[in-house]
Amino acid sequence: MAFGLIKDDMDIDLFLTPVPLAKADLQGKTVVVIDVLRFCTTACAALAAGARAVIPTDGPGEAGEMRMKLGADMAVVAGERNGVKLESFDFGNSPAEFTKATVGGKHVVMTTTNGTGIFTRAGMAGPVLAGAIVNASKVAERVAREGKDAVIVCSGIEGGFSIEDTICGGLLIHQLATTHSVATTLNDAGSLALLLFRSNKTALKQTIEQGEHGRFLTSIGFGGDVETASAIDSMPVLPVLKDGRLVLEES
Ligand code: MLT
């Protein structure tokens, strides 16, 4: 920004992977953590089904302890490693498992390979939103309303780039610029995400299915989850991190 000029655009820094993330990057900004396949999609499903909260944790041990603390009648424990439900856990990481009957009124304590750990490290920022394709418009609306500079963190896949999270970041930036007429200044990864979304928007599901994680999930029997996660605005809820828990924010 040039000296003396009043800044009226929104700086959006998108991180293709969570690796360069430091707490200093997040201070005073709206933070969106994206994990399309599948944690954020599953968190949306659980909260839409009436769960009280989704609690991200760093690992199975911590998840088990948290569940004990909350009480087995008040909490379930869910998550995956290599895409598959952890032994002795109640549920895996498949959005279809989270229904009113299974999680209504309960805390859902979760650990996943990539997604949950990012939320446990984002506590100093505010607000921190869980972003996915299924709740994209809710997230974009909240980022626009907040009006602050924003950081979009793609969970990626085991430290690397993932096409579905980047496309989702591009979708959010696209909605901010079009639906909400927000003037944005993007870092190069943000520009890349926007290009990726705009050049794939008519074949979103196919692009995500053909991605590394989409192919992997399909190969182990979770192709339905990939389809669910690719449907824009099919779960119009807004999970917001409050005291280490993702809760629903009514708008
Ligand atoms: C993750 O956080 O690594 C993912 O949600 C993995 C998955 O279950 O697809």
Automatic annotation (TrEMBL):
Its EC number is 3.1.3.71. The keyword NAD does not apply. Pfam families: 2-ph_phosp (PF04029). Keywords: Hydrolase, Magnesium. It is an enzyme of class 3 (hydrolase). Gene3D superfamilies: ComB-like (3.90.1560.10). It catalyses: (2R)-O-phospho-3-sulfolactate + H2O = (2R)-3-sulfolactate + phosphate. It comes from the Bacteria. Its cofactor is Mg(2+). One of its GO terms (molecular function) is magnesium ion binding. Belongs to the ComB family. This is Probable 2-phosphosulfolactate phosphatase. The gene is comB.
